[in-house]
Amino acid sequence: xxxxxxxxxxxxxxELAARVVWEYLDGVPEPVLGVATGSTPEPxxxxxARTRGGRDLxxxxxxxxxxxxxxxxxxxxxxxxxxRREIVEPLGLDPQHVHVPPADAASxxxxxxxxxxxxxxxxxxxxxxxxxGSDGHVGFNEPGSSLASRTRVKTLTEQTRRDNARFFxxxxxxxxxxxxxxxxxIRDARHLLLLAxxxxxxxxxxxxxEGPLSASIPxxxxxxxxxxxxxxxxxxxxxxxxxxxYRDVARFKPEWQGW
Length: 259
Ligand code: GLP
Description:
This protein is of the alpha/beta class and about 260 residues long. The protein has a single domain (about 5-250), classed as Rossmann fold (3-Layer(aba) Sandwich), CATH 3.40.50. Helices cover about 30% and strands about 15% of the residues. The protein has helices at about 10-25, 40-50, 80-90, 110-120, 160-165, 185-190, 200-210, 245-250, and strands at about 5, 30-35, 60-65, 65-70, 100, 125-130, 150-155, 175-180, 190-195, 230-235. A seven-stranded parallel sheet has the order 1-10-9-6-2-3-5. A three-stranded antiparallel sheet has the order 4-8-7. The two termini are about 15 Å apart. The site of 2-amino-2-deoxy-6-O-phosphono-alpha-D-glucopyranose (GLP) has 14 residues, from helix 5.
């Protein structure tokens, strides 16, 4: 099962998640990192920038989970721009090595196959950072997404559009479509690192980690994966039934085990 780590707040989560990411990046010669957007990974990205030291990350390849359809190139809320601000510049990545699903009108018919081919050509994702939506989505795989799905165009739910309206002037500006890695694509990553913070995520977290495996809760795919690390703040963990056990597992984690 997933290793579930419950920490006091999102800063502590950012520090712990950064240790997991550095262990991966420092441990392999050709790292391929799957990167999430949204507000959840922000403390992690800040901590990576703070603790980067003298590392040269220009060879690191990164793949975004998803991208909005219909935003003009350079729109500040397109995930390509978000990643430029949050990781490319602060971490000194080569922008050519940071891939985002193609989402312009001309690319859409073949966007999924193209993106899957790019991930495969890089050797697959080694460590995938994930957030979770309040409706249980991962990437933009909304409830009902096939557990075997691959990268494709999806329609956003009204709840996701409402949740993400805070990044736009109004909900009317939030796109209705996106291109997202599928749940099958995400499951192919060798290690999943899922982060969630705040009481508004508690229900989705409990359903994903302790509920039945179900396309209705796309985040429940973590139950199918052999190597998952989950880092939660107390609020996001508040709906879990076995939190005391997870705390014991963390407290007695053998030192040799690594992440
Ligand atoms: C967003 C993204 C997801 C993200 C989730 C949660 O819309 N597409 O990758 O994990 O929804 O967002 P946030 O981290 O802002 O709560």
